[in-house]
């Protein structure tokens, strides 16, 4: 049990800290500034991942509030065009009239903001140009047209694509099936070989640094479908090209779309095991089109359902954090105003991180909290957690927490902030009292620890390990205060 040795106020605690260990004082203050521009992507980077991204498109360009968020590289470090890069959008007119204008606008914006750009999607059975769906193809004529589409498109975007979704949704949509979808035009004319064929031609045309992905839904929910994706990986890797070349079709990653529903999100162990199924094949993985919708919006979701959505987001984010080969997370739009779900599934929705007025929802704070904690734990020994209503738990190491409330506002005596010390395994209090899974912190004695607490999105606490002591500094309504504990 952690012992609270001293409670110090204002200048009382600042001087011993800086006198005894001047090098410790400045990192504390610096850590305050570090996160002035904190956003989901910067938190994701601090947690050791590559990106937190979103889909967007030209049709939102005139919504200034939406654009301000999309173009904030601390919030989103990866951009993917929601629709404009699909084959049917690139060739709206006649065969051969390819128009990259809309995707180029999004790509240029991402580049200007220093954001990664994911290219989406080369070969998918839907949103095809009308000449593709209306022509009666032979194997030869369809292969030629597919190859030309791949080569032209991939060459146009070149090295700007962090990754390509080469093929999407090739697997049957019936649950618990590992078979290929036979409703796709490509499968009907070319059979299963259209998949490795597409990866082969993309491999030849793509920048060697671009990652080539297979992207599908329900992989995270259905073990058989996930196995179907494993079979696709083998199909690609075993492919012999028309000219007899082997090992030329490359696949680097699996995108798990993760269009999920509140209360139906797989457990954390189930999600991590699905991710590992793919990372064990030397592939990277990402949650590629995440949203977690309410299955009914009428009546409006109540507090329990909203909290469940926050927990569900935490579970998905935690799964990516737990698996080394999970490089990032991309949401399929961030605002309930524009989510595809309400069009595709009338009556369902509300699954995004921002509401219709571009304001962060509880789900956003939940995601930020999980990421923030992962970053803190990664950086050092001490983690502090504060829920939105002002409760705080200080995790000294994996087995000790100090819990309390107050301090952040409302004029409560910060004395109460550490009124209780408790052992609580690896669980700490999270957003509004929900329990969070948290990686274990390390021993405090190495003086490497650093942590922070955030109440209503504003930083209120900073913690550091210092010569075997834990130093907690806070500010807010009560002014500055500090706690020392061993
Ligand atoms: C956690 O810290 C407490 C004291 O703060 C200590 O007694 C305990 O041994 C530590 N546990 C581990 C696993 O390091
Ligand atoms: C080729 O396919 C078989 C299964 O059909 C699989 O066991 C093998 O690993 C595959 N080869 C590669 C390189 O993926
Ligand atoms: C992935 O590989 C690890 C190490 O070999 C193994 O323990 C784990 O069970 C594998 N996971 C899956 C889902 O195949
Ligand atoms: C919230 O709504 C769900 C679904 O309608 C219902 O089962 C649950 O009892 C409600 N909870 C509260 C606290 O109203
Ligand atoms: C947390 O609880 C407070 C009331 O204590 C409420 O106002 C707030 O909306 C809740 N936050 C979330 C994310 O549910």
UniProtKB/TrEMBL annotation:
Annotated signal sequence range: 1-20
Catalytic activity: Endohydrolysis of (1->4)-beta-D-xylosidic linkages in xylans
PROSITE patterns: GH10_2
InterPro entries the UniProt entry points to: GH, GH10, GH10_dom
GO cellular component, as recorded: extracellular region
GO biological process: xylan catabolic process
Molecular functions (GO terms): endo-1,4-beta-xylanase activity
Keyword Manganese attributed: no
Transmembrane segments: 466-484
Keyword tags: Carbohydrate metabolism, Glycosidase, Hydrolase, Membrane, Polysaccharide degradation, Secreted, Signal, Transmembrane, Transmembrane helix, Xylan degradation
Domain GH10: 37-370
Family: Belongs to the glycosyl hydrolase 10 (cellulase F) family.
Listed name of the protein: Beta-xylanase
Organism: Sordaria macrospora (strain ATCC MYA-333 / DSM 997 / K(L3346) / K-hell)
């Amino acid at each position: 049990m952690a012992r609270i040795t001293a409670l110090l106020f204002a200048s009382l605690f600042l001087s011993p800290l800086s006198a005894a260990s001047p090098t410790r004082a400045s990192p504390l203050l610096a850590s305050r500034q570090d996160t002035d521009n904190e956003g989901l992507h910067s938190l994701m980077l601090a947690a050791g991942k590559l990106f937190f991204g979103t889909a967007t498109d030209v049709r939102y360009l005139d919504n200034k509030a939406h654009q301000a968020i999309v173009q904030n590289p601390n919030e989103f470090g990866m951009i993917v065009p929601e629709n404009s890069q699909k084959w049917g959008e690139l060739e709206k007119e006649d065969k051969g009239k390819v128009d990259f204008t809309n995707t180029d606008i999004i790509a240029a914006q991402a580049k200007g903001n220093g954001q990664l750009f994911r290219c989406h999607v080369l070969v998918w059975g839907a949103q095809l140009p009308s000449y593709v769906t209306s022509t009666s193809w032979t194997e030869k004529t369809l292969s030629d047209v597919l190859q030309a589409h791949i080569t032209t498109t991939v060459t146009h975007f070149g090295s700007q694509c962090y990754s390509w979704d080469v093929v999407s949704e090739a697997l049957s949509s019936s649950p618990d099936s590992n078979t290929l979808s036979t409703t796709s035009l490509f499968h009907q004319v070319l059979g299963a070989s259209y998949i490795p064929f597409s990866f082969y031609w993309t491999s030849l045309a793509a920048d060697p640094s671009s990652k080539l992905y297979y992207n599908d839904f329900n992989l995270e929910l259905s073990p058989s479908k996930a196995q179907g994706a494993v079979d696709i990986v083998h199909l690609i890797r075993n492919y012999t090209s028309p000219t007899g070349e082997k090992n030329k079709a490359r696949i680097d990653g699996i995108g798990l779309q993760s269009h999920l529903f509140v209360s139906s999100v797989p457990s954390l162990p189930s999600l991590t095991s699905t991710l590992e199924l793919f990372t064990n094949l030397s592939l990277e993985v990402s949650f590629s089109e995440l949203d977690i919708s309410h299955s009914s919006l009428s009546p409006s979701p109540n507090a329990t359902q909203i909290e469940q959505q926050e927990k569900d987001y935490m579970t998905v984010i935690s799964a990516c954090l737990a698996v080394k080969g999970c490089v990032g997370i991309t949401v399929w739009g961030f605002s309930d105003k524009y989510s595809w779900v309400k069009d595709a599934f009338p009556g369902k929705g509300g699954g995004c991180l921002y509401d219709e007025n571009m304001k962060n929802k509880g789900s956003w704070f939940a995601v930020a909290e999980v990421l923030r904690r992962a970053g803190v734990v990664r950086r050092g020994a001490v983690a502090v957690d504060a829920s939105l209503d002002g409760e705080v738990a200080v995790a000294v190491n994996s087995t000790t927490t100090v819990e309390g409330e107050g301090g952040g506002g409302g004029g409560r005596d910060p004395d109460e902030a550490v009124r209780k010390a408790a052992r609580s395994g690896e669980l700490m209090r999270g957003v509004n009292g929900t329990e969070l899974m948290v990686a274990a912190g390390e021993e405090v004695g190495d003086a490497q620890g650093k942590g922070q607490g955030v109440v209503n999105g504003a930083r209120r606490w900073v913690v550091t390990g210092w010569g075997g002591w834990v130093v907690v500094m806070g500010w807010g309504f009560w002014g500055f205060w500090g706690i020392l504990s061993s």
